[in-house]
Amino acid sequence: MSAPRLSSTPLPGIGVRYDLTTRESRRLSVVAHRDGHRTISAYRRDDPDACDLSVRLTTEEAATLIDALMPAHHTPNLLSTTDLGLVAERIELPGSSHWNGRLLGETRIRTDTGASVVAVLRRAEAIPSPTPDFRLAGGDTLIVIGTREGVEAAAAILGRE
After folding, report:
1. Alpha-carbon distance 151 to 84, whole Å?
2. What angle do CA 82, 69, 89 make, to 5 degrees?
3. Which of 62, 17, 20 is nearest to 37 (CA)?
4. Is 9 helix (H, G, I), strand (E, B) or coil?
5. CA 145 from centroid of its chain's CA atoms
6. Are β-strands 27-33 and 5-11 bridged in parallel, bridged antiparallel, or unpaired?
7. Per-residue pLDDT tens over the stretch 133-161
8. In the sheet where 5-11 sits, what is the strand order?
9. Which residues partner with 141 through β-bridges?
10. Which of 68, 73, 131, 145 is the most exposed place for a label (fewest CB within 10 A)?
11. What is the pLDDT of residues 80-126, one digit of tens each?
């Protein structure tokens, strides 16, 4: 599987065409028209020169699609992603969790996953930088930062019943 590739081609009098070849060798293109419209095209897998779908979007529709692909706001779980490969995620501790009433240090999240719990949200209160002797409670939302794999492993640990 190869890495995704993006190229651009000026289209005099029209705008610019951006071609993306995905890791799965699928070809997509976006024509950024000078008037703000966008045309998105997807090409057939068996014939990358044959267009399977083409959709012309208004400026507003394109902006809405961009927001869906790269939201400026955060989703309920994902807070941010950086070019360093780190993510920050909200992980809710279920009331039925094995860790309900136990100390944060007992989870061994940082030791076992490399991810860090940087804050806990409890009701209307935020507890920044909880120490290992912080007692967890069902309904707590933990803000965890680390690699995607580390955060997913932390979520699995916290979800233990």
Report:
1. 14
2. 45
3. 62
4. strand
5. 13
6. unpaired
7. 999 999 999 999 998 889 889 989 998 87
8. 5-11, 15-21, 27-33, 38-43, 51-57
9. 92, 121
10. 73
11. 555 567 888 888 898 888 999 999 999 999 999 999 999 999 988 89
